[in-house]
Amino acid sequence: MKFSELEKLCKGKIQQQANEAEIKELVTDTRNISIRAGLLFFAIEGINHDGHEFVTEAYEKGARCFVVEREVSLPDDANVLEVRQSLLALQMIARAHRLQFDYPVIGVTGSNGKTIVKEWLTQLLDYKYSIVKSPKSYNSQLGVPLSVWQMTAQHNLGIFEAGISERSEMERLERIIQPTLGIFTNIGEAHNAGFESLQQKADEKAKLFASCQKVIFSSEYPEIRRALEATVSEETELIAWSFEKLEGHQFKVLVGETELVLKLKFSDPASVENAIHCVVMLYVLGFGMDVIQSRVDTLNSVKMRLEMKQAVNRSYVIDDTYNNDLHGLEVALDFLHRQNQKKKKTVILSDLYQTGLSGEALYARIDDLMRNQQISRFIGVGMEISKARGLFHTKAEFYDSTDDFLSSDFSIQDEIVLVKGARDFQFERVVQKLEYKAHGTILEINMESLTNNLNYYRAKLRPEVKLMVMVKAFAYGGGNFEIANLLQFHKVDYLGVAYADEAVELRRGGIHIPIMVMNPSSDSFRLLKEYNLEPEIYSLDQLLDFMDFFEAEDHMPPIHIKLETGMNRLGFKANELKRLTEILTLNKKLKVRSVFSHLAGSEDPRHEDYTKQQAQKFESMSEEIFKVLWYKPLRHLCNTAGIDNYPNYHYDMVRLGIGLYGFDPVMDEEKKLSTVGTLKTHVSQVKAINKGETVGYGRLGFAQRDMKIATVPIGYADGYLRAFGNGVGKMNVGGKLVPTVGNICMDMTMLDVTDMEVRSGEEVVIFGENPSIHDLASWIHTIPYEILTNISQRVKRTYISG
């Protein structure tokens, strides 16, 4: 595709054209640009992002072709096309590219299971087909065109997923993907906000299959059948299936009049449904049951997201070991690039398959990516990548096999390591070697959910209102470095911590944005200047100590003045303002960055009058301070609940705390927030006990019947409080909430799994979606803050990104 062809194709106008460039790659993010020709950069304007601000950076990184929505200033050797909407232009180009290929394309949509079905189909079919597919969950208006652009003549099967959040979106995706075969996985409540009913959502999703030859769906969902019958063409064959569970892991699948009997290694309902969709697709493609069963036996569980785990020697490992494709590598490198906890970054990569590029072109491009992302060390594993060692300019090592690599003297220290490999390289063994193995219990932090919550609150603010995010108390149990790094990436204005040593750790971990220290002690003043920290000053004595400490210095760190307006905790009272303003007037080295106070009851409507009184007092007191200053500091009053309930009191900045982590004290708002943390463990042992026997310390667990007890490795030393013992607390085992038995031990808890099929090693969820932290808090009559901040630091944190 030539640049000049884009003007007519995208219905745009060429601002400037230097040459007749050939378009080889589409990019919307400057972080994904490597050094190569033929790159077309799209300046896309979003809610919190404007791509036009990055066109100069894209040019500096090698882009010479641009699609923009307004006039931009670029050197004469750039080609610039102006269009009405850059995203629409991207979709038009991807659609034109799709029309060049006539091999089968499978489209997948539904409320849940899209990515797993796509990945499992790839696992089942990649021995026979050269497959191009969506990277991870690239199923949006932006992700779909980028996925389809990967199609080449070297592929002979495409598998793309499509997701929508509101009406009229699927028609655009259908025109890009143009699937010949389809799978409608299911219909449910997920992502329901943009639709009036379940049927309306099914109707919209069904539009993906408007021109399909065959569409597969489960007869369990009548909404899907009605939607398909009303949408697809008369030539489309609708293939409904149902199943019956037989003994053991055997299933009988009914496809029309045909019975397919097969064995599945998965037993949970979602995995069974996803696997049967894949089995029916193989049957539709003409595979016999012997081949289908042999392929199903090879299925592995799919990791849906990148996982960043604590590793040995003060390092981190990013686990992306379930597949290996070029676009997925760019996604993973982008995630690695955003991690600033360690300066040294290493990539361990296996041979790449089915890229549509020659070996020389492929690995030269990978070397470009490594250099562009400033990778410190590259390790290639596999015969093909080792042959290309001469193409790499980054510091590199090569091994013919995973065994060769694992038997080497490779070690890591103070670095972040991305491990990405194709399934047959078994790179999970590499991750296991590097991973820090302190505890079998894991707190899983979903960084995508955290970002969603951040954007939810940002959308409530006026554009000029700044945002401070609290990361005190180990970021409410989630981990200081990792969460602060994400917030820095998303350009929050301030971070807030309780003590100076928390801030020092963040600075040492690469956090450079302003940090307010809410409770600095006099012996920590020396750290304020050294680490560029800004203290909260809340009393005359503290202010005088601060001034004495910095008396001989040329300048003092800027301060944040806390006013007492009704919380009766810390802060200057009204009768202290005269002395405070005198000091501010006389000491010109004192720089007041902000004046603030704290609402005592912003989450409770019963305290609305009191909150208004606090706000009036805050305005009056802060004005007294402003009168003696030649500049105007920031004012901030609202916490998480205040952001929701009192938009008139947002002033110049707000402080977001527990809401970022998925818990809003204003209860009816929580349905709009995403669950950030999931605390998981596993079953250590299952044993039968007889009626009359006892369980645990103090013999308080008494068996009133024959029972089956599962022991899990979490106890009060991990933050699972003794209050949860004796049936008060419940954990999720196999989708069912089961009660605790007996007292909670320091390191272990016993659960009643009577009448359940439970094996050692099975996953157990302490909190997440079900039960939620609110459930746990209500069981022991406390608040979510206490549950979160009680989680011990010996519990390993894992960070996942979608």
Q: Which CATH class of the largest domain applies here?
A: Alpha Beta
The CATH topology of the largest domain comes to TIM Barrel
> What's the helix count?
26
Gyration radius from CA atoms, angstroms? 29 Å
Describe the overall structure:
The active site is at residues 472, 697. One of its GO terms (molecular function) is ligase activity. It comes from Reichenbachiella ulvae. It catalyses: L-alanine = D-alanine. With 802 residues, the chain is α/β, with parallel strands linked by helices. It folds into 5 domains: 5-87, 3-Layer(aba) Sandwich (Udp-n-acetylmuramoylalanyl-d-glutamate--2,6- Diaminopimelate Ligase, Chain: A, domain 1), CATH 3.40.1390.10; 101-296, Mur-like, catalytic domain (UDP-N-acetylmuramoyl-L-alanine:D-glutamate ligase), CATH 3.40.1190; 306-437, Mur ligase, C-terminal domain (Protein-Tyrosine Phosphatase, Chain A); 446-671, Alpha-Beta Barrel (TIM Barrel), CATH 3.20.20.10; 677-801, Lyase, Ornithine Decarboxylase, Chain A, domain 1. 29% of the residues lie in helices and 22% in strands. The protein contains 26 helices and 38 strands. A 12-stranded mixed sheet has the order 18-17-16-19-15-14-38-20-29-37-34-35, with helices on both faces. Strands 7-8-6-9-10-11-12-13 form an 8-stranded mixed sheet. An 8-stranded parallel sheet has the order 27-26-25-24-23-22-21-28. The chain is globular, with a radius of gyration of 29 Å. The two termini are 31 Å apart. 45% of the residues are buried.
